Description:
The complex is a heterodimer of chains A (775) and B (224). The longest helix of chain A has 45 residues, at 631-675. Chain A contains 20 helices and 22 strands. The radius of gyration of chain A is 33 Å and the shape is elongated. In chain A, strands 4, 5, 6, 7, 8, 9, 10 and 11 form an eight-stranded mixed β-sheet that branches. In chain A, strands 2, 15, 16, 17, 18, 19 and 20 form a seven-stranded mixed β-sheet that branches. Chain A has a four-stranded antiparallel β-sheet with strand order 3-12-1-13. With 224 residues, chain B is α/β, with parallel strands linked by helices. Chain B is 34% helix and 27% strand. Chain B has seven helices and ten strands. Chain B has helices at residues 48-55, 78-88, 104-114, 121-130, 146-159, 176-193, 204-207; strands at 4-15, 22-33, 37-41, 63-68, 71-72, 89-92, 164-168, 197-200, 212-217, 220-223. In chain B, the strands form two sheets. In chain B, strands 6-7-8-3-9-10 form a six-stranded mixed β-sheet. In chain B, strands 2-1-4-5 form a four-stranded antiparallel β-sheet, covered by helices on one side. Chain B starts with a strand and ends with a strand. At the A-B interface, helix 7 and helix 8 of A face helix 2 and helix 3 of B.
Amino acid sequence: MLRRVTGAFVAVVIGVALVAASTLLLASGRARVPDRFAATPIVVAGPEAGTPGIPFPPARPWSSADAAALAARLAALPGVAEAVPDRTFYAQVSGHEETTPEGHAWSSARLGDLKLTAGAPPARPGEVVVGEQIGAAPGTAITLLTASGPQRYIVTGVVDAPLIFVADDVAAELAPGVRAIELRLESGADADRVAAGVRDVVGTGGRVLTGDGRGALEPRADARLRWIGMQVLTGTAALGGFVTVFVVASTFAFTVGQRRRELGLLRAIGATPGQVRRMVLGEALAVGAIGSVAGLLAGAVLAPAVGRILVGARLEPATFEVRFEVWPVLVSLAVGPVVAVLGAWSAARRAARVRPLEALREAAVEQRPMGWARWVLGGVLLAVGIALAIGTAATDEAQNGATFALYGAMALVTGVTVLAPAAVPPIVRLCRLPVRTKGGAVGLLVRESALTAARRTASTAAPVLLTVAFAVLVAGMVRTSTEAYATGRAADADAGWTVVPQDGVPGLSEAVVAAVPGLALLPTTAYVDVGNKVEARSVAGVDRPDLTGDGVVVLAGSGRRVGETFPVVFADGTQVTLRVTAVEPDGSLPVEFLVARDTVRRHDPSALTPAIQLAERVEVPAGTGARVVDVATWAAEADAEEDRLVWVFTLLLIGVSAGYGAIAVANTLLMAAAGRAPDLRVLRLTGATRRQVTGFVLAESSLVVLIGAVLGGAVAFGALLSIRSGLSEQVGAPVALVVPWTVVAGVVGLCLLLAMLAGVATSRRAWVDTNRLIS
Amino acid sequence: MTTQTVVLQDVRAVFGTGTRQVTALDGVSVTFERGRFAAVMGPSGSGKSTLLHCAAGLDRPASGTVSIDGTRLNGLSEDALTRLRRDRIGFVFQAFNLVSALTAEQNVALPLRLAGRRPPAAEVTSALDAVGLAGRAGHRPSELSGGEQQRVAVARALISRPAVIFADEPTGALDSVTSKQVLQLLRALVDEHDLTVVMVTHDSEAADYADRIVTLADGRVVSC
């Protein structure tokens, strides 16, 4: 039994390792409590905003006055020593753009128990405390990039954290809106009791965050990265689980096929069909349970390594670290037995249908290759796969597209595998001519044994199918969509120049905007009350003649009319009533509404301009964190970032599926070949030379790889064609299908190599066995 | 208690469909009595194996009735048929009789385990003793000779104290010396334990050990 189920066991171990690593990382991927809140057990945050239009919105801010009033009421509560508004604004040290671009008020450092390692706190405008990693001693001057432009600051002290602090008064000007109020408790105060009191005071006007809940205040950029990382990990876990079910299924289908006589014997001497089924499932359960434990251990070792890769690939924020939680362990332990039983399910059903008479029969005469249930199941899976492939084509979001494509490919691969026995005979007949003329007796043998056992041939080819389909589909999808967007860009990009921020800088400051001509949008977030919920709206400030004072341009979809007024809350926490001056068609604006640029600047001192389009090349002032590129380069770079994320996603998935698939290929071929040993002995005894036996085995393995590659390729190309048609519609231009031939060649070559190795190993064994038999 | 352990009445068995239809048994009626050793003979394709399969409930006849120890097999569910085989019938096949992963002892005890009973060690030992293999209880099939494997199969057939043992060419894969041992064993079981044995063979020497020879040709009984 051990040798028989080795393949399934290895599959479970790898699958559970992947699931364990992914879930451990997922569990670790919770928001981290920012350092400055580490010593404040209770933080009161502004109300959470819903997000129809923009991802990861910050909480709705209080105005300085509202925050001060609330802080005063909180400070009066028993057990609260101090309540200080937390202020966050845009700032980064010039030359150190890799750190989170945020500055804070010194009082946050004080409450956060951050100690100065040298120097004194900032007290006046132009003074700053920075992290030790900057390497600036107290007394030296540095340049801070701020929303208004580069500013000279004198370092008064350094702290042991990569943070930037200015005096509270200065911070209050740079960040007039307050999104959090930090509470320092009196020593000996019970945090839970105080939190209850705080909740009573705050009511629905905010959220009281304690413990890990304070992680909700992490930087937005971190939240976005975390979200992308989660997509990748979920995809990896899903793929790992799927491939495991797949490999276990093919392993068990195999062992059942090879044990028909033994199962028939058991049936003859008194095992009921139910007992046979339970026996197979029990075997699967044991394999799954033991494999789970081994896989969990492997996953626990793997998780930190993968975590580092994700951080390196900027799919997780730099603060990411693996935490060992209980639920991933439980999930991983459960995954093994569940996927093993799922995988063995159909094999167990077939085992139960073995008739007792089969113990008496010699030849491997297979039952009908295709039953009606197989046709129906295969058809349904194909339909689901095609529906998902069309969904892939229809979705706008690259990340969603990749996820859809993945699940679509899973359904298609399973569907085609189920239907594969029907496809084997035509494919075998197609390669009949070359095999016959070249192979003689060997060709005949290969062809006939593949045809008489279409089902066995199909299940040997299944892992090849899986590997080829995933690799080609995923790689082809990415290349084709990259091509499509390039086509789209070429269609609408006119010649010109663009001012963009340097690497690591989130946007262009006013100093840059003032230095160059061109339209400079100033995006920010505004908040509106919808019913009793707060919703975030994307807003941009723009210089436009019809936009002055409280004027606003809205989209037709908002349902508002010219002249209508409505209140919004800006980033500084003040409420402003806007008056609609124009309504524009949906899709014509990059945001939900436009206001005057001055309005945004007045209410959001940290707002930054993402890019400025120019007709002529200009010079930007040095040291402002900006650079000038031509439009084509800029568009390519904008996509490159997206593409880079998608590529990391792609490579991870191809790595998982191809690596895992390769193991499955080797395993299945070895098993299949081991089952052929008696045939090989007969062949040898009837006068085949060693060369002929080896030739037979190699030809058979190659045929299997060919069948798998043809079917897998068919799956991938079918899906790619539907993706292409969807993309063509999206970019409004015909899109060329890019076939990643190098990937195709690499994957097929890998499978072929494995098949050859497995084949040679078996024919050697058969040879040794035969020699023993003769002597 | 009936002395007619196995009764086949007007049994017809047909294989294949349409023009490739083959009638393996063409209205066979035959009775095997308790405590007798019967041999079923006939040339290849005469239907002797099919007769055994139908009699043992391994195959369902197209028409006619089969009963074992008074139980009619027609209409029994697959599970009921399995239980009947487990409790009332022992099998010895030509080859591939044993589960290769299990020891002789475990193979012998298998029918009891399948029935959900804990095999009493004494019964297993005595069954192995009856076939002269008490000393090889812990050996696996690969460590036993062909004749020994067949004798383990006989011991397994004995363990459930069946009404009848069906043997399908039990000596077909053995040399003449070990054949003789296995046949003598079956003979002794009939004589000493009042067992009923139905053996299909094409070997007239093997048939000499039987009390009675049923000869088939073209799916019909020609002598009995």
